[in-house]
Write a structure and sequence with these properties.
single chain, Spore Coat Polysaccharide Biosynthesis Protein SpsA, Chain A, 2 domains, seven-stranded mixed sheet, binds 2-acetamido-2-deoxy-beta-D-glucopyranose, signal, signal-anchor
Amino acid sequence: MAFWSSFNALQLLVGLLLLLLLHHPITTTTAIRVAGTIMHRPSLAPLPVFREAPAFRNGDACGSMALDRIHIAMTLDINYLRGTMAAIFSMLQHSTCPENLSFHFLSAHFEPGLLSSIKSTFPYLNFKIYLFDSSRVRGKISKSIRQALDQPLNYARIYLADIIPEDVRRVIYLDSDLVVVDDIAKLWDVDMEEKVLAAPEYCHANFTQYFNNAFWLDPDLAKVFEGRNPCYFNTGLMVMDVDKWRKGGYTQKVEKWMEVQKQRRIYHLGSLPPILLVLAGNIKAVDHRWNQHGLGGDNIEGRCRSLHPGPISLLHWSGKGKPWLRNDARKPCPIDHLWVPYDLYRSSRHSLEG
Ligand SMILES: *[C@@H]1O[C@H](CO)[C@@H](O)[C@H](O)[C@H]1NC(C)=O
Ligand SMILES: *[C@@H]1O[C@H](CO)[C@@H](O)[C@H](O)[C@H]1NC(C)=O
C-alpha cells in the first residue's frame, strides 16, 4: 500500500527516462523499480473473487504488554492467490491476537487487482505490498527439474531482508500452499539462540540427494559442510532474523552458490539447495509440528500423502498437488479436506477493479 500509493505518472516518466540513460540496473529508487516492473508485462489472467472474511479482534489477553507486532512475509501471485488467502485466513482464525499480525507481501508485478483483492477479502488486515524486482534474480536462475520452481518469485525469500522495512528485525516467511492451525505467536516467540534462521530440521532425510556428484566429488565444494552436521529443512516456513541476515550478508552468500550452479550444475532443485549450502546444520531447530510438508504428494502427480503422527500446527501442501486444484478436479486426497474450511474462493469472475 505504502509503496504502490506512491506510484504516479511523473515517477514513471522519470523512471523510464533514467532507465534509458543508465544501462546498468539500479534497484534503490522507487521510480526505477516501478519502471522496471512495467517492462515485465503484468499477467492478464482474470482474478478470482473471494468472499469477505469476518473481522478478527484481539482477545483481552492481548492487553498492553509492549510486545512487537508479528511480521509475516509471503509472496503474492495470481496463480497461488487462493492458497495465500487460505493461509492468511487460517492464521487470523487461530491467533489469540489477530490484530497484531502484520503482513508483508512480495509481488513480482505491479498489479492493482491483487491489492484490491486482499483489501476486499480482509478489510481489517494490516499489510503492505512490495515489488520484488525479479531482474535481480532472473539471470541467476538455472533450470531445475520442476518449472514451477524456476519462477523468480520463488527466490524472493532470499531477498526478503532487503525488501521489508529496516525496523522489522524478525519475520516469519511462509509459502502460499499451507494453512496454520495454531497460534502463530507460539512460533514467533522461538528463542533463536543467535541463529539467523529457525525451522524444523529433518536429520533422518538423506541429505546427499539434494546435490549431485559434481558437488560431492569436488573436495573444494563439498568442504563447505565441514564442521557442520547438515540436515534438510524446508524453506517454505522459516523464522528469519532479518537483522542478522542483513548484517551477515546472507543474500550474497546464497547468490554466490547460485553462480556456482550456473557454471557447473551441482543440484537439481530451485531455491532450496543454495540456502541449504549456506545454512544447513546452522539453524535453530523448531518442533516438526510447524511444518507437515509434502502434502501435495512429493512431486508425484496423483499420489496422496497421509499425515505423520504427532501434533500439527502447520499443514503444507508442498509438492506438485495443490488442494484447490485437486478439489476442483473432484479428485481430492483425503488430506485435502483439512484445507477446505479455509477456502474463501467464490468464483473466477473477471475483477473489474483496478
Ligand atoms: C498487540 O498489539 C497492540 C496494539 O499495537 C499492543 O498494544 C499489544 O501489546 C500487542 N500484544 C501482543 C501480545 O503482542
Ligand atoms: C542417499 O542418496 C544418494 C543419492 O541419491 C544415494 O546414492 C545413497 O545411497 C542414499 N543413501 C542412503 C543411506 O539411502
